[in-house]
Batch of 2 targets.
Target 1
Amino acid sequence: MYNRDSRIVITGIGLTAPNGNDLKSYREALLEGRSGVVAFTTRYLGQVPAGVCNFDENKYQRPSARRKGTRAGSIAIYCANESVRDAGLDWTAVRRDRVGVYLGITEHGNVETENEIHELARFGNDTSVWSNYHNPRSIANNPAGEVTINMGITGPHLTLGAACAAGNVGLIHAAQMLRLGEVDIAVAGGVSESIRSFGIFASFRSQRALAMHEDPAKASRPFDVGRTGIVVAEGGGLCVVERLGDALERKARIYAEIVGYAINSDAADLVDPLAARQAECMHLALSRAGISPDAIDIVSSHATGTERGDAAECEALRSVFGDRSSLSINNTKSLIGHAMGAAGTLELLGNLPSFWDHMIHATINLDQPDPSCALPQIVANHSRTADQVEYILNNSFGMLGINSALIVKKVPVELGGYCG
Amino acid sequence: MQEIEVRDLLVGLLQRVAGSDGVPDSLDDNIPMHEQMQLDSMDFLDLVIEIRKETNVNIPETDYKNLTSIASLVAYITPRVG
């Protein structure tokens, strides 16, 4: 069944980031340049800089349910409930079999497996201490499934493994399912519990790609010559996504319209990015949106603070956008770290308010730009104002060479567009 | 450990398994636990694992059917925990 109403909009937002547990506080922190990166103690490695969230786990979930589930599930439940509440949906009247849950994740199961192996070692490898909840906690659909159980959603639920492109991919999949008429409402975005896994940190360190700094708030430094790697963060960003016609019918407040997107693959290397494919991905998203690069006002960059990754994206951005001065490029990871599966969504959501407050948050910790990243459009260290913001392009790339670009457009107030 | 200590330990483990909100204040030791709180078979297995970790008492599956109440668990664990 193909629904002709193919225009897709975001009408609700729920998030938890290392520097905010709702859009308002998160946006304020981003505009003020307030980092959410702190010193965090992780198993075996000691203190590392990390983005840590402090939302109330029991706001929507009973402690007994939380024990059976996962941190990713807990983050997802918080964000999903917040997004539905924010969307103004009459949840009791919503057909739950027509709701889909699509959550992007970078990885899942590492946290639970590491914890069980830790316990196993503590008890002399006696497997009788291995949790009977390990399987439901560690299966790949866990975070999305926990949302359906918590909210009584009987439509489809999926977690979409897409490395660090996953936050965009969750929203893209939602748009696709809505256009296909598979669901009427999607709760979509990305989540990450990755800081709870020492292995994530240890592997980045083995790659010589783990950021370290005596001041945690200064550890995440994309584009800066003094960067030392990635700051891992946890978090979640979930949106209520629906067809424009449905949103108009219920007079919903609309944050943005998803007008273009693309996903492609480098087909080249496990970890090294490829600027040419990233540029192709952005061009494809622009083509699907029916706009030229000149229409984009803000690029929310993916850059993670690694030498090759930052340089590749800057090369791609240079090739797509040139040196047009009316463009602004920023980087949210400098403020919250790399929220892995949630990164794409959180970085998009942190920039959405630019449609109505005409402010562009900065890339902090950019003291001395790496010459290979010295794009003139990068908003460095201090937020700035913009005359107008009509289109935002959000980049999210990941290991195994997965690239994604998502383009959102401001919705006019007369159609329900949010105005702050 | 004395019986009272084992009981206190068990109630603590129950709260861990069923959540701080899941264990009633007035537990009757002689009534099956699942009749007094939401405690399904997975929760019971979770409790068995926690008992193993805290007391080193490994409860074989054949004994589960006789261990439905706090009193029966206390009577079972106390002589084995030493």
Note: Residues 67 and 73 of chain B are 5 Å apart (CA to CA).
Target 2
Amino acid sequence: MTAQEISVRPKQEVVEEQTRAGRAYQPDVDIYETKDSLWLKADMPGVDEKSVQVRLDDGVLTIEGSVALDDYQNVSPVYSEYRVGNYRRRFTVSNHIDGERIQGKMVNGVLHLELPKAEKAKPRQIAISAE
Amino acid sequence: MTIRFGSPFTSPFDRLLSLQRELDRAFENPGWDFGLSGRGVFPAVNVFQDSEGYLLRAEVPGVPPDKLNLETHGRTLTIAGERDSNGAGAEGAGYHRREREVGKFSRSFTLPSSLDVENAKADYKHGVLTVRIPLKAAAKPRQIEVKAA
């Protein structure tokens, strides 16, 4: 059985108009849930921790990242296979998330986000006693 | 004449747009040939030129340098490595979305003979791998002095 290989997929452009000039793209994400939290990982290469913004407004989670342009000074593109741009993506999250306790970090161009569930949303064991 | 986005005529807000337009023009430029390894193999790369030589840039987020393997052999540069889920899907987790691919990758590039592939240097920053390949000394542009007759 051959080892799984990663494929090249073109970036999905964000369709809504942005106030900033320049095309933006939707980062690939993994979203998974554990007993206590919702977890999100988003690929945003070129973005450092100072250039990422996460907001939760009215049940909508918005993640945004600005790509650093310093490394593109004084160089001239000769051949291009992938697009460069800022990142933006929005998700509807249920109100079971405790917005105050959301935590995030950027590691090697990946945003790691933990969205803890509000206490009342956690599965609660109901004790059944014998009569 | 190309208007470089670093020129005084563009504001910081236009820098990204200018870069994107330049990249559009260079997109899949048929004048560039990597040899056997064509497009569609991960990772996708962008190639830039500066006064010293070429820069090959690839987006490989979440792959720390110790999981990257770069090799040169003659005119060929190979970029290989393995991507994992970076801790996604811990025990007992239920996935809602799974878009980030994991697995091994390997891509080889045949570079122009004017490049000194042996002296390529690489760095990895915020998920972007940049390989700098200098021009061979003989291939560097040489100024010709014009003497008054």
Note: Chain B touches chain A through 69 residues (CB under 8 Å).
